[in-house]
Structure formats: C-alpha cells, structure tokens
Fold these 2 entries.
Entry 1:
Amino acid sequence: MGEDLRVIKTKASIRSSLFELMSEKRLDKITISEICVRAKINRKTFYSHYRSAADVIEELENEVLGEFSEILRRGGESILDVGAAIRDVSATIEQRQSFFKQLMRQNPDLFNKGKIKAMLRRVITVSLKNAGAFTDNEAALNAAAEFSISGVLSLYSAWFDGDCREDLSFIADTAVNMVTRGLSAYVSEEKLSAMKLN
C-alpha cells in the first residue's frame, strides 16, 4: 500500500523547502529549523520522516538510482542497445531536472564519480553486452563502458552548466551518435543502425 496523502504532501513540502534553501547556501549550512520554517511544519514532523537534510537528499538520490535500475531491469527492446539506454537515462534526468540542478550546484562533480556514475556505467556495460561488443574481452568492455559513460556524463554536466538551455533530446542524440560511432570498430553496422534509430 502506498504512502498516506498527508505524508506525501509533507515530504514534498520538505523537499521543495530544502531545494529553495540549497539555492541560497550550501547543504551543510542548512538547519532543520530553516527547513521547517519554509515548509510550515514543526521539527517533530520533520523528524518523523527524516533524521537530517542529508537524509532528504539521500532519499531522492535513491529514487533516481531506482529509476536507473529500472532501465536495467526492463529488458526487451528498451535496453537492447546503447541508444535506447542513453535516451531512457536522459528522460529520467529531464524529469528530475530540478533535483539534479540543485545537486550540481552543491557538488559540481556529481556526474564524475559516485553512485550515479557507477549505476550509469552499469547501464552502458549491459547495453554494450547486448549489442554484442567485446564479448570475449572483459577489460576492453569495461574500458569502453568507462569511456562512453564519461563522455555522456560530461555532456550532461555541460548541459546543466549552460542552465539547461538546449533541449535534452539534442544532448541525448549527440551522446548516442558519439558513442555509436566510437563503437563502429567493435559492433556490426546493422547493430549500429538499430542503436541510432531506436
């Protein structure tokens, strides 16, 4: 059974209040009292849901990681190729744009290391395997996944740095083209065409 509507509204109020404060100061300088004043709740209400401001961020991060995990679990046509995986990841980032924007403000290296990069590297690795790339060379597979995801994440970082002015689908298409062209020495032309079109 899902969460009570009051709980959902309270958590949403806490999150939006924290995001407002994060646009004004660093996360480690934000107090629970400040969040409560903005959210129009008391401290007891806050502590019935979270232990700290960092817990709020961790919950959101885990939701995003869950969405990336879902991209892996879907199977079938949604993850048959690198192109579909990158587009699915881009859609998730676009839906959670305000979350990522605030995290990028706090941590410019968000896409360069940590859990998010590790999960996205796994998405790309599975996609490369499904495309039939590097089937007999695990080291080459890992190197290609690291190279690919670093480039893709760099594009996302630049998109946020540019205040998200371009349409994210343009960024996704650029990433797909760069990655698939780089794979041309390792994947059949038929597979590459499918990656770009899906």
Entry 2:
Amino acid sequence: MSKPKVFIDGEAGTTGLQIRARLQFRNDIELISIDPAKRKDILERKRLLNSVEVAILCLQDDLAKQTVGMLENPQTRLLDASSAHRVAEGWVYGFPELTQGQPARIRKARLVSNPGCYPTGAIALLRPLVDSGLLPSRFAASVQGISGYSGGGRQLIDAMEGRGGHRLAGDFRAYGLELTHKHVPEMTVYSGLEQAPIFNPAVARFRQGMLDFIPVHLWALPHKVTGADLHEALALRYQNQRFIQVMPLETYAQHHPVLDPQRLNGTNRMELFVFENPEREQALLVARFDNLGKGASGAAVQNLDLMLGLEGDHTYEYFGD
C-alpha cells in the first residue's frame, strides 16, 4: 500500500521548516519537495499541489488565498498554516481540543485551517469556561501575550539575531496597540464570546516560547465563582487530552517568582494554570506553550495525522534550530 504524499508549500519559511523537521524521519508518509530553483514557479507549485493527498500551506495570507484557487484535484486536501482562512466559511478550525467532536470534523474535512499561536492559548482557556457557564458569553475578556521572536517570521528573526548587519534595539516590544490584530476574530469566534476581547501581544528577546494571560475579576461575574471552580472546569475538559495539561491549582508556589515561557519549547504540549487571590476575588488564567510547537508546526502535524488517519504515538517534538 502506498504511503500518503504530503507537500509543504513554503517549506523554506519558519513554520514550514519546523513542520518538515517533525516529518522528515516518519516512515508512514512520503514528503514531496519542490526544487528550490522553482519555489516561485506557479505551474510547478500547482502541479505538486494537485499530486498529493495533503498540501500544507506555509505562505503569506494573500498567497495562501491565491493557492487555494489552484486546487483542481478533488482528492487533494489542504491544511493552511496562514491566518487567511481561520474564520472562513467552509474551513474547519484545526484545534482538536476545541470540543469533543472537533477531531472527527478535522478527520473528514477537505479544508483545515491551523490555529494561530496566541489564539490557541486564549481559546484553550476561555472556551471551556464559557461552555460551562462560569464565564458569561458577554465576558469582557482581556488577553495579554508574550512570545519568542520566531513568531514574527524571517524578517523579525533576522533583525533580532543581527543578521545583515542590523539588530533590533531593545529586549521587549509591545505591538498591536491599535487593537485590530488579525488574531482577534479567531479568538472571538472560537472562544464562544459575543464581544471581541482586548488583545495586546508582545515579543521579547528569546527565540521561541509563549505565555498567554487572561485576568478575571471574580467579583464582577454574575454568579459566585472561585478560582477552584475555574480550575475544575478546565481540568474536566482536558482530563483525557494528550497535549494539554491543567497544572495543579497550587502550582503558583512552585513557579514563584518566575513562570518560564520557554519550558515547553520543542514540544506540542500546552500547560494551563489558574492563579487566585481569594481575598481580592481575582484570578489569572495562563497558558504556556511553544509558539512554534502547539502554536504552529506541532499543531499542524497533529492536524495532518488526524486528516490522514495516522494518529499514533508520535512525539511531535523538535529541538533543532
């Protein structure tokens, strides 16, 4: 029986390189690569796109949209790692842990959109709490995030690492201050919120790793809710999940004063935390994961395996450059 063929369109980019690194030693698929000299050859890309079972798009949004129009083979399925189709009609959202039925939807879908990095953590925290009624659908959510600079792509990587004689000044950059970041629609739709959250991301001088923070004023909720209630709901939702772990409520004592954003680098894992100050009736929800792992390439491989029916004991780990 022949192995399913997989083509990574844009394999020379940050996400594409890491997806390939996670797949290159697998013996249950056949990776198809384009001749480096033909990476911008539309006809060659189109030929390869229509010759495989799954094509993974690691492209800029506009190019990803154009590439979908090149699809002619009814047997070819697409996994888009860009942000072009995350809330688009006809596409299935590639976050298997979103709901109980999401893995089955991904398995059957022809078009799957890989989640964004920051939304992955925010949705993982918010959706179970909205579904359980602990947070109302009109909850005024605020999401703060900090990421390694690899999430900004090759241009930012080069600037942060001083390639080409230029080094970006400073160790920390806040951005998205116009409050119109492209991740916001995705966070809103899949978290179950009626109103868009305020989202303010930042990038720091470490290559990869990520933390998402969501503060909760427990006293402002319509019903009495404690940090333990939030923790219990998250633990119940993810109790049988392989890649998402809800950390003990007491974990704050183990991590004070540092919660290292790089601890899960190279993996497809995510850790969720609930910190509470009962006297002030405040809680802080935190997601920790690798922005290139569960936030991008690791998640893409997880989705690919669902689409091909190859779920197994793959680690999805990558500790290379």
